[in-house]
TrEMBL record, chain A:
Bilayer disposition of the protein: Lipid-anchor
Source organism (scientific name): Salvelinus namaycush
Subcellular location: Golgi apparatus membrane
One GO CC term, this protein: Golgi membrane
Name of the molecule in the record: Golgin subfamily A member 7B-like
UniProt keywords, alphabetically: Membrane
Disordered, as annotated region: 140-159
Domain called Golgin subfamily A member 7/ERF4: residue spans: 21-133
Start-end of Low complexity biased regions: 142-159
One of the GO biological process terms: protein targeting to membrane
TrEMBL record, chain B:
This protein's record includes keyword Transmembrane: yes
Family named by the database record: Belongs to the DHHC palmitoyltransferase family.
Ranges that cross the membrane: 63-81, 93-110, 208-232, 252-276
Domain comment (free text): The DHHC domain is required for palmitoyltransferase activity.
Annotated source species: Salvelinus namaycush (Lake trout)
Coiled coil: none
Highest rank taxon of the organism: Eukaryota
Protein name: Palmitoyltransferase
GO CC annotations on file: endoplasmic reticulum; Golgi apparatus; membrane
A Gene Ontology biological process term: protein targeting to membrane
Ranges of residues in domain Palmitoyltransferase DHHC: 162-286
Record Pfam families: DHHC (PF01529)
One function term, GO molecular function aspect: protein-cysteine S-palmitoyltransferase activity
EC primary class: transferase
Amino acid sequence: MSTEFHNLQELRHSVSVATKVFIQRDYSQGTTCRFQTKFPSELDSRIERTLLEDTVKTLNSYYAETEKMGGQSYLEGCLACATAYLIFLCMETRYEKMLKKISGYIQEQNEKIYAPRGLLLTDPIERGMRVIEVSVFEDRGSSGSSHSSSVSSGGSSQR
Amino acid sequence: MQQLGVAEPMRECEYSQISTRSSTPMETPYKKRTPKKRKWQAFPGRNKFYCNGRIMMARQTGVFYLTLVLILITSGLFFTFDCPFLSVQLTPAIPVIGGVLFVFVLGTLFRTSFSDPGVLPRATPDEAADLERQIDVANGSSSGYRPPPRTKEVVINGQTVKLKYCFTCKIFRPPRASHCSLCDNCVERFDHHCPWVGNCVGKRNYRFFYMFILSLSFLTIFIFAFVITHVILRSHRQGFLNALKDTPASVLEVVVCFFSVWSIVGLSGFHTYLISSNQTTNEDIKGSWSSKRGKDNYNPYSHGNIFTNCCAALCGPLPPSLIDRRGFVQSDTPLPTPPTNGITMYGSTQSQSHMAAATPLMQSEPVILTDEASLPGRTSLGGPCSGALPLGGQPTPPTSTPNLSCDNGMLPLRNDHSEALHHHHTDGVHHHFLTPEEAPSPPGMLPCGSPLGHSHTIQGFYNPASQDSLHEDSVRGLVKLSSV
């Protein structure tokens, strides 16, 4: 019972999503995948402007590279057509490879920059490439001062 | 920001616990609870899925089977009756080439029919709420009797393009996307809905569609030409009528091919033109980029020259499907805007039963919630609430109900009128359709205008547990506490 109580305190004081901020797509250059680099005002107090802008710019450059129509993508397209697209049973498309790279990048950014500030970026592919969802985590520690002692004990147990 | 000083040192270690994968924390213990359901089983559009989600087609597939039967029978007759004669008399290359064409036609047909055309997944409730909030802010909350049409303007390469808001999918459609009312999905770079292939033709399967009709034109012409050759060669020896008696199948083949050639070759030509100018059928019919609309009207998506346009359409990178049909549904994954035909929400039934169990304690919850920072836009107006409301005793805003029923009533009306941007592709017959500007605003919108305004005043009062598993955990914790 005491462990349940402890868990409850941890839950009550653990993070919860207070709000979600969405960075929308930027269609000014056509239908290629780009996100707006305009800094959302809701995050002003949570993160430095330049960090987020850098992340979005890097993501934009990755997406641009993915959709770039150059020799390599044409070659891949022709080869795929010639093999009746059976080649994709064996190998990944360039697009899929890039998406994996982007996922890795987002995860790395989350670990290094966003999680310490209580934010979490969601990979746009999970939102249909429409938005970059930034989850803003708020501490629920304000639910009662009587729990402050267990707050610190809960905190120390987590370390 | 409400942070106690004592909570501050905790902040570091708490946040370091956030799973940096996009799944929300505390989900793993509960994966076992919800039955393992694949996402295609809960797909909100009107599509049929086969082979456990690998194959995706439209609802009406009758004409597709007709297409398949026609191709199989005509080709079968050709290979059985004409090829033996021709390969002996002329060259054995004929059945070989015919065979290659036939295989290519079937391959591209299946690829077109079975793949995802580029369906855009519907907005999650959070996104939808956020967008609604932005629209209300932009329009002013007291927008009068009828909310203005929801459009956003964007300048693409110098041309002003209007992005329309899709009421079914609750998103602003990207440029060139359109909502197919037959499949009830928004499709990227929507070309048209083709009943002959039993699917929409969009960004992801346009090249297969084009190669299908191109190869089918070649196959049709090929069969037509060689059947005629066959009959002529035979009639040199036997006379025309005897020749026909010997090869009755040829007559059927000629008839089928003759009627197909005009439509299919015509269609190939039309789509070749579309590809070279980088337009969709939709845009061409509406004359979106025609110079008749204005001197400065041009296609902002065209790459400039025909070669680049063709390469881009046919050999460009193929984006993966956005809807992840075969993935498993996570109970805490934000659910997309639910379908109006009442497909049950898997996660919410579980959580709602817990909510019901915790009902006596829920009364204290709102007190705690409102003490915290207000949660703007957290109200979910979609389906996850629809399961919750009948359970009673929930501190839900009463105005949510009329919004839901109103929503349900409104959608079919919108679908009929303003979403009719697709056109049925039937051998070049173009149906007239209404653009959203021409279609009258559905009267069903009128009573819905106000509830949408009301719902935003309810801030963070009711937090659907299906969205926030941590809230569910807290509730469960409260239940445990009560049992002590």
